[in-house]
Please model this.
Amino acid sequence: MSLVDAATTRTRVVETGLLWGLVLLVAALSLLPIGRLVFEGLAPGGALSTSSLGKVLASQTTWTATANSLVTAIAGTVLAVLLGGTVALLTTLTDIRARNAFTFCFVLPLMIAPQVTALAWLQLFGPSSTLLKLIGMAPPLGSRNPLYSREGIILLLGLQYAPLVFLTLRAGLRALPKELIEAGLAAGASPLTVLRTVVLPLMTPPLIAGIALCFVSSLGNFGIPAFLGIPGNFLVLPTLIYQRLAGLGPGVLSEVAILSLLIGLIAMVGILLQDFMLRRRDFRITTTSSAARPFELGRWRAPVEILLWTVAILILALPFLGLITTSLIPAFGVPLNAKTATLANYAYVLLEHAASKRAFVNSFLMSGAAAILIVVICVPLAYFIVWKKSRLLRLLNVAAELPYAMPGVVLAIAAILLFLKPLPLLGFSLYNTIWIIVFAYLARFLVLGLRPIISGYLQLDRTLEEAAQIAGAGLLRRLVTIIFPLVAPAAVAGALLIFLTAFNELTVSALLWSSGTETLGVVVFSFEQGGDSTYASALAAVTVLVTIGLMLSTLLFAKKLPQGVLPWRD
Amino acid sequence: MARLKIDRARKYFGSYTALDDVSIDVEDGEFIAVLGPSGCGKTTLLRQIAGFDKLDGGEITIGDRLLSSPERHVPPEHRKLGIVFQSYALWPHMSVAENVAYGLTVAGVRDPERARRVAAALDLVGLTGFAERRPGLLSGGQRQRVALARCLVTEPSLVLLDEPLANLDVHLRASMEEEFSRFHERTGTTMVYITHDQAEAMALADRIAVMDRGRLLQLASPSLLYREPANTTVAGFIGEGMVLPARLLSKPEAGHCKVDVLGVEAVMRCRSDQPAIAQAKICLRARDFSIAPGAGGLAARVERLSYQGGYFRMEVRPLASEETVLHLDAPEPVPAAPGETIRLDIRDGWVIPEPELAA
Model:
């Protein structure tokens, strides 16, 4: 009797301990930084005061940047919705061919760092464009690169985030029961009428969700306005925060905290607006069934396919051709031909430049560490959320979304506030170490790992775990020997998603880096700011190749994954 | 020692009562089937015994070990039971041998003892030579055998089987039924077998617990269940019994009494303490009728005939009670066409002791 009691107690201690450990960890990664930031906004430097608040709100720059942020984010979102929405409807509902390849190409810009996209497009236009010189169409020297403008930022934001709208809308279209379309057709409506009266109204929720996601991402984007806006002194909130902090140091922390709260507030309004709009009407779909049979385009099929691939080439191939050509010339402005072409830039960034070499190691290690740690956290976390239906963790599941939903600068500033002072008890500061970046990665990308792992659990038959439990295995043993191997494909997909996102990231590290802890994003940014476009292009080209290589490698095990886990796979 | 005792078990899901005062005593080595339609609470009961859910009232003990009560809950991993799941629940990332060895590894049994016992278990289910296969490459019947071997290798004192044949082809079911039966004889393990298929339950079990809407309706041997159903639900559920209102005409005498059913007098079996009540219910089976040659008996119109091979299943409506449909088996050649009136003798029947089960 007493032996059984001891074993039962031990089981309970392990399970409760693990649960509370996870609760504390998720709280530390999500609620703590955001809470610290809000505290700073209310009581700058620890004392209730409105002086910083007044200073920030009275400044003309604040409102110019806010207006710029709103204009670029909204216009960028409109562009993204038009492009991504059209492409989603065409690829999901019609019978075009090579859908997988197209999806891969169309989603690719999302996986490539915004600063690399910006750099690539900059190389495409302007008087020094190597590509335009190659075909003799470069504008005269001294003319301004048209992308250094508000419109340039809007264009690139739209192109960068069109895949977001595409992905959410496609997921919605996939869930649309074919009966609803067939009922419309059977009632005598033409395909276009069905699209207008049945499909689009029912697609309101994913469309609104896509719009909100797109708006928040555009609002928080740092790479594109940093490359295109800073040279022309067109500042948005994230670049304003960066300039203040980079120029004046942690002394202005209270002020930038208020700025980042401002941007967080705008993001929040966007998310709440989405929530409000979705609540007003009933969009529930009552049945589930297989996906609809695609509409036949008939003789329009070839033209539509040509159009789609032209778009893909325009937004993908052309800018990267610009990037590659620039990376092959010895100095910026020199025309590219058989005599001038050189790999010296690659040799320099890969082998010679110290910070660039360090950045490779840093980015690989930090992204890898974040990916592995998040998977290790998320496998038990999703277990409690999905199978144990822990109410506490379901709330924290929502909290875990927060650092990812908020613009990256918000989290970065929160991390600085949290770690600037030495840690209590330990007596050392994480500020200016790689650990502050690792912390920010863990907090920001936790949800990227959690989502695929949760859908992995939802696909599993729970009796597989119960069989192990009946065999006498405790929770930890079950997690290691049964559950982890079964959710491994989803976990690997999540880890890759995290790795790729962190590997290409600039927003967080631009504010958190210090000498010795540079990331690839930071080095590409510094090269470009210092006028070394050739080095920047070479380094960016390498990161693009690594990204595409890793994305392609996932196709090897894609069949084992729940649908929708890998955004770039149809 | 291994006696399973379920004592007034209660379980609620919100306001829904999934288990309503269920009490079952399972003898050591007994094979008990829990039978009922889906939603009757049989799976809930299994999950209570296994410990996957917590009990809201009552107790579950094995031997003298209290496993479940509202205050105490031994987690499944410390109950030392075996379960064969409906979906088999074989781990796809392990070989057959690894699947079977898992429980031993957990219990700290090491090679060569472990390897020996795994080989013995696979031999017992006739899967020697399949040890290195992956479960995904096996047929349904073979997977079922692996699940059985995995469950028995640790020699649990109690094995729970959750509709183990539900996912198998009809022809495989018969052979697996035999296998379970042989198994039970050979190992002497106490088994609780959950099923919705009464033929399966009848063929395998020493006793059957019939459940409906969370309540235990009757716990008895298959033959007793068929011959002497305790209430109208069991009577109607088991063996397609026909429940009819009747009037008792005499006190029980040597286990029989006279009844008036549909205006006809007949002699039926009953309990020796059956009170003579006016509003009684009786249970009739198809074979309790025979077609009367003369003008006596129950007049009924033939409604429908369907050929069953060697005999016809005949549906008739008694002239005295047009809304009642009776069915009987009539041998070839066809005795009457639809629309014709025939006369039936009632040769046997059972007076249901608790017609109105307390709701």
Chain A has two domains: 1-43+348-570, 50-177+205-315. Chain A touches chain B at residues 1, 4, 7-8, 11-12, 461, 463-464, 466-474, 477, 481-482, 485-486 (CB under 8 Å). The mean pLDDT of chain A is 83.
